[in-house]
Amino acid sequence: MISTVGAAPAVLSARDIHKRFTPKKLPPVQALEGVSMEAPRGMLTALVGPDGAGKTTLIRLAAGLLRADSGQLDVLGIDVAKDPQQIQDRISYMPQRFGLYEDLTVAENLDLYADLHGVSPEERAQRYPRLMEMTNLGRFTSRLAGKLSGGMKQKLGLACTLVRSPDLLLLDEPTVGVDPLSRRELWEIVRDLVHSQGLTVLLSTAYLDEAERCGHVIVLHQGKVLAQGPPEDITAIARGRVFVAELAVGQSPRGVQSRLLDAADVIDAVPDGGRVRFVRAAATPTGADAVGGAGATADAVASAGAAPLNGLAAVLNGARITRAVPRFEDGFMSLLRRVADQEHASAISLDRPPADTNTEVAVRVRNLVRKFGAFTAVDHISFDVQRGAIFGLLGPNGAGKTTTFRMLCGLLPATDGELHVAGANVRNARASARAHLGYVAQKFSLYGALTVDENLEFFAGAYGLRGTRKAARIHWAIEQFELGPHAKETSGQLPGGFKQRLAMAAALLHEPDILFLDEPTSGADPLARRAFWRRITALAEQGVTIIVTTHFMQEAEYCDRIAIMDAGKVLAEGPPGEIRHLADKQPGEEPSMEDAFIAVVERSRRQNGTSEAAA
Question: By the 8 A CB rule, do 579 and 557 touch?
């Protein structure tokens, strides 16, 4: 296990911490098992790991909200078990679902939390202007919290957390569900607190690029520490194992990626700007011969007997292979695959793939408009989605993506424009169109008090399935999504990755031609996201048309085409490789999808004189 903490003394120190939960009618859960870790003073420390790794439990223990079963936990030099109140007087904690009062204004929320923490009028006069400047909320102090965008709500939550000056800041996944622009702004705030004020921050995150920016990282899995140290130490685990495949004409990056994941000696693979980036199980020689020279084809490398591509030539047929510099995510996935291989291949097989039709266009949108009173949420957008394609709708919070989704699904009438889905005019025949659609909402539409079996029974009935057909489809869903071990658990008790599986299983019970996924991986860990996209790729290969929104820009690489929206308009549309080129060019750096997204939205806002709040 990597374990390197710098010379800075630890603000938080855990030694052999154990924590077990015993929920009613369910087996006990060992949340933490022998955890030892440190968070150095004046540094940003990240907790990363899959769902159920113990990240939130560890943060709540550090906040004095839970008590460890055994072990020693010191925060700010204080034994948490002996005096949790003294610690709570000196720290600030922002949980995943921060308790904003949506019927209070920005200013009233700040005052409420200042009252709760006993912040004096003099202290408020000093801190409020700084908080408003930091979060860019100064113009909106009279706006109701419920009227803020998702990113602005997170910034307000952080401001409320900081109404007093803490010695330690605890943040539990502060950027979940936040678009890339707002995420960047939140990170600028947190980094400024660390660098200019010397604040110590411990946070958990599902975004591995965020962990890469921290000074110290702790990797958890099933309640145990797999590694801790500087991010570059974890990145180094993948040294000599990372390659990029430049595909031949006609090869699908998504298809090659899914087949690479089936290879026994491939740890990870992701689409990457029209290419495929993959990580091998073992390091390989670094000389030119090891990769067949710069840009050698997979066949040439294999015929030369080069070790890196042995057994992969058929999958990479015609591709040009180059070695790549490892990223933190490559090292993280290498580390995790040693102990968590069960999600390595998770394809899905349909009982009845969608039948071929005479038209190749599954979704046709022309000048679509949706107004709410004087407010135009969707403003004359147009696009086509081909049958069996994956189409991504990207945009900041409040861009109009979910409103567009609801119109496409027939859940919300359009104000104007043309909308054809699966051959049906949705504006005139919403009910008949919905029979061909599956929909997974942002907040999974599951019934938390019902078991997995009961949720599937309910949704099957809602889709009109009866008798042996209903039983067969429920059996298919449980088998394909590997839900059997959790069949008798309530959906509210499932880990996030299994809630996602159950929601998608329910949406596919009636074998829809088109599947709509509204931010389905928000808050999901990297393993769950890989498994999710493996299933989505398999669905698309069998003819199901997929339309998806996501705030994970890397996931846009799985799409055949993407559209970037803001303020109800489509700003850019095209294949991921083309969209990347819209990013602002930085010397010596290859632009990412996130760079392109931010550049496209910011250019439009500058031209139109708008902002996040106006959007």
Answer: no
CB under 8 Å to 172, separation ≥6 — which residues? 55, 56, 59, 93, 94, 95, 96, 203, 204
Strand order in the sheet with 275-280: 266-272, 275-280, 242-246, 320-323, 296-297
Number of neighbouring beta carbons within 10 Å of residue 187? 17
User: Which phi-psi region, left, alpha or beta, contains residue 163 (left: φ > 0; alpha: ψ -120 to 50)?
Assistant: alpha
Give the Å distances, CA to CA, from 508 to 56, 387, 550: 32, 17, 20
Helices (H), 441-519: 452-462, 467-480, 496-507
Q: Do 10-224 and 240-325 come out as alike in CATH topology?
A: no
Mean pLDDT of the chain: 85
Q: Does the reported pTM lie above 0.90?
A: no
Q: Average the pLDDT over 376-396 and give the result.
A: 93
Phi/psi at 278 (5° precision): -140, 155
- Strands in 328-374 per DSSP E: 361-372
CA nearest to 68, candidates 24, 28, 26, 16: 16
Long-range CB contacts (within 8 A, 24+) of 126-134 = 127/162, 127/163, 127/164, 127/165, 131/159, 131/162, 131/163, 132/159, 134/159, 134/189, 134/192
Task: Note whether 351 and 333 are within 8 A (CB).
Answer: no
Residues 279 and 203: their CA atoms lie apart, in Å, by 27
- Name residue 520's amino acid: P
Among candidate residues 560, 563, 574, 575, the one with its CA nearest the CA of residue 601: 563
Q: How does pLDDT run across 302-342, given as a tens digit for each residue?
A: 443 344 566 687 788 778 889 999 999 999 999 988 886 54
H-state helical runs in 117-230: 121-135, 150-161, 180-197, 208-212
The amino acid at residue 572 is A
Q: Which of 503, 489, 596 is nearest to 553 (CA)?
A: 596
Instruction: At 89, list the tokens.
Output: 């007087």
Two tokens, residue 433: 């169109």
| Fold exhibited by the domain 10-224 | Rossmann fold (3.40.50)
Strand partners, 216: 45
Q: What is the mean pLDDT of residues 535-541?
A: 88
**Close Cβ partners of 29 (under 8 Å, ≥ 6 residues apart):** 20, 21, 22, 23
Name the strands in the sheet holding 29-40, side by side, starting at the edge strand that comes first in the sequence: 29-40, 10-21, 70-75, 78-79
Architecture of the 240-325 domain: 2-Layer Sandwich (3.30)
Domain ranges of the chain: 10-224, 240-325
Band (pLDDT 50/70/90 cuts) for residue 435 is confident
Return the sign of the alpha-carbon dihedral for residues 197, 198, 199, 205: positive
